[in-house]
Amino acid sequence: MNAQHTPEDPTSPASGRTVRRRSVITGTAAAAALAAAGYATPSAAAHGKGRGYGHGGGGGSTTTFTVLGTTDLHGNVFNWDYFKNAEYTDSAQNDIGLAKISTLVDAMRESHAYPCPLLIDAGDTLQGTSLAYYYAKIEPIGRRVVHPMARAMNAIGYDAAALGNHEFNYGIPLLRTFQRQCDFPLLGANALDATTGLPVFPPFVIKRVRVGHHTVRVGILGLTNPGIAIWDKANVEGKMVFPGLVEAAKHWVPRMRRAGADVVIVSAHSGADTSSSYGDALPYPENASTLVAEEVPGIDAILVGHAHVEIGQRIVKNKQTGRDVVLTEPLRWGMRLSALDVTVRRRRRGSGYEVVSVTSQVLNANTVDEDPRIVKLLQADHDKVVTYVNSVIGTSLVAMSAATAPWEDTAALDFINYVQADAVKKAIAGTPEADLPVLSIAAPFNRAAAIPAGEVSVRDVAGLYIYDNTLLGIVLTGAEVKAYLEFSARYFKPVSGTGPFPPSAVTNAVTDTAPNGTPDYNYDVMGGLDAALTYEIDLARPVGSRIVGLAYDGAPVAADQRFVIAINNYRQSGGGNFPGVTTAPVVYNAQVEIRQLLIDWVSEVGTIDPALFASVDWRLVHDGAPITVTP
């Protein structure tokens, strides 16, 4: 890769920062808000002369400035659950959304007025809520429509944001439109042009923080997830490539230092606990932030994203220099705000600053109210989406819940499989594969999803399918179908006897690619369209030999039998590393979103009748006896 000039951000001498909106929190209110959020002022012992009052001269005087960080916002502006049509809540009493983050940022800017904190993000902004979907697909952003996330982040005053893998879900043109609407750079040092190998987004930016009569130059490097090449293959293939984070950081960090960066902060959309879900598809680990810290000298701190976990502070030692690198991750959806306190001092020889120490912590968004400025700014957008998702599109004869879908056959997943298979069956009419039996796969994405009896709204249906996947049709043999189901059955833990067991004793098993447990979205149920595909999953048997009695239309599935499989793009492109799918012949790929397919089906048919699609075709057993799972 060739070095790329990255312009610096000019700073107002009066404020020490670029222009910001006025804080809505002042004085003791700011201090109280931060104390309630869990912020502990760095000790003088750890930071020399204290925050912002170093003289900037020689002799070891120090100053401390703060870098604030968010990640995995996933389209959350307000503390609102669009699928439940209610204020967001969870068992940990978390709150979500940029409106609350804005209040915390204001409090930090009030209490840390000089130098004013920087604010960055570690990616996954554009997908995840009905708000994000609406402004991507229903009323797409453009010249006259500005994305609510861009409007909120501009108003709050972000300095930079790294790209996340979900930024690419709606295609590169929409991402470019969002980029133009942001008043801050979207950074992606390892998002490269597939032909030239050059970055297609700015790799880094250098921000200037005023310290007395001097300036600390803070470099922010953006790194994204190589899995984009797999998960959004249809959107990026032939256009962009995504090498590993370590490789990109090794290239760019020295260039940032030569460009004058006194401090280097990495904003990385890649988890801290090293793991890979790519299998053999890519040579890079999915979660590589710790590896970046260990293997790339010259980094002072990393804002971590992608893993959706909370890391207040983690210290990683660089193998080459022996220096500590601080990692922090502020959970997800705006639940937390990371605060990195960076203490620097003037170099004794030469110009510039050197880092003395870095500490970090996270602030809890559930301790503050939403910023009324952000609420006012985006209330109309929010109301429009609420009206859309609550619009009635049909009725259901009975209630259907996904609560037990991970461990038993449910009508809710049968419904998804039926609609997917029906769409593929109709699409391949008149093709050589038209007479093949059609199967479909679906995962229990959302245990909270439920279709009520009676009127059914957009949000009811959308809750069944919370990801923006598209539908494909591929061809697998009977042997490949069995291998697929065996791989899926790794999701279950081995048990003794038939129970009853709590779900945690049966589901979400740890595997070589899922050290924290297999997520629900990587467990697939397979069903047939014109006739039933039936099988048992015997948890008394070892992994790889659990699928028993696999049959189609009552007859054992032959190894050479051919099936068309309705499958989502995430899975077909290698997501979850399921066997056989990435090389299977593709017979249908019209880029139709599955969630919209479900909504359209209900709108057109009008009535959801489980008698059309629901049957018990698979079950968990132990030595052939049914297993009981009790929530």
Automatic annotation (TrEMBL):
Gene Ontology MF, one: nucleotide binding
All copies of domain Calcineurin-like phosphoesterase, residue ranges: 66-309
Entry keyword annotation includes Hydrolase: yes
Record Pfam families: 5_nucleotid_C, Metallophos
Region (Disordered): 1-20
Keyword vocabulary terms for this entry: Hydrolase, Nucleotide-binding, Signal
InterPro entries: 5'-Nucleotdase_C, 5'-Nucleotdase_C_sf, 5'-Nucleotdase_CS, 5_nucleotidase/apyrase, Calcineurin-like_PHP, Metallo-depent_PP-like, TAT_signal
Domain 5'-Nucleotidase C-terminal as annotated: residue spans: 392-581
GO BP: nucleotide catabolic process
GO cellular component: outer membrane-bounded periplasmic space
Keyword match Nucleotide-binding: yes
Family stated for the protein in its record: Belongs to the 5'-nucleotidase family.
Protein's name in the database: Bifunctional metallophosphatase/5'-nucleotidase
